Amino acid sequence: MAQFISFLLLVSLLAFAPLCFSRKQTGGYLYPQFYYHSCPGAHHIVQSVVAKAVAEDARMAASLLRLHFHDCFVKGCDGSVLLDSAKSILSEKGSIPNRHSARGFEVIDEIKAALEKECPQTVSCADILALAARDSTVLAGGPSWEVPLGRRDSRSASLSGSNNNIPAPNNTFQTILTKFKVQGLNVVDLVALSGSHTIGKARCVSFRQRLYNQSGNGKPDFTLDQSYAAQLRTRCPRSGGDQNLFFLDFASPTKFDNSYFKDILASKGLLSSDQVLFTQNEASMELVKKYAESNQLFFQQFAKSMISMGNISPLTGSRGEIRKNCRKINA
Fold this sequence. Notes:
Elements: H1 2-16, E1 22-23, E2 29-30, H2 42-56, H3 60-72, H4 105-118, H5 125-139, H6 159-165, H7 173-182, H8 187-194, E3 201-203, H9 226-233, E4 245-247, H10 259-265, H11 272-279, H12 282-293, H13 295-310
Antiparallel strand pairs: 1-2, 3-4
């Protein structure tokens, strides 16, 4: 009888909350209540470990959010970004977008260890990434949303997919949009999700090309505020300093808000991939203006777009596995 009631509840939830549910190529559903019975303490465990990590290092909020993004854009949201290299696996951690910059793996390890102690082989690493991304956003002052759950973990990784599918800081707008469309996302998702750059840092090597040798004259990119460029040059020289870190949003670097879009309007988007949202496409330009005007509108769309991104090709049902250790597949 209890199982029948649970089934009716699920059917009702599927009917009345379509935004929080996903049914992709796998034929399986993701839904926020997935662990309510099998691991009721899962949400609290993830949130508590993330809160501790962000309290110790504010940048960790952006790092955990980025891990979820880099996971979903390669083979779907399947935890593949967490795998270390092994006999049959070439880790995505060595890709151009991830090496020297992807971080937060130890935090995921800590969450997984706590969950394995509480409810062994129940909560997937892919779901941990999705929950940690939401909790990081909230802790930084951003919006919350119900995270659809039920993903399973991949038994493989794709180094080539990581190199080719994740948008690069120097990509043109059209290239970035194409990479989003391949994942089933649109221009609204692109602009809203780019707003995650309201927190976090970027390395000098990620934007140096904007500071020097534009059109062969050695001057900064004309779409970059020249006084801001001069300031950046002091710590980002023509050569060296590749690992020097700069706030993506200099106005409120650790607060999740819409000042990122205000920076873009002022020609102070740090990365080329930030500024092209305003200079290379009319639709994205209008969205930048709207989000700069309304923090509430940005928050609402960011939450929706994060749910959409988290729904990219999840493994469900009998596909994949629930890893005991997020860094390696089960024996």
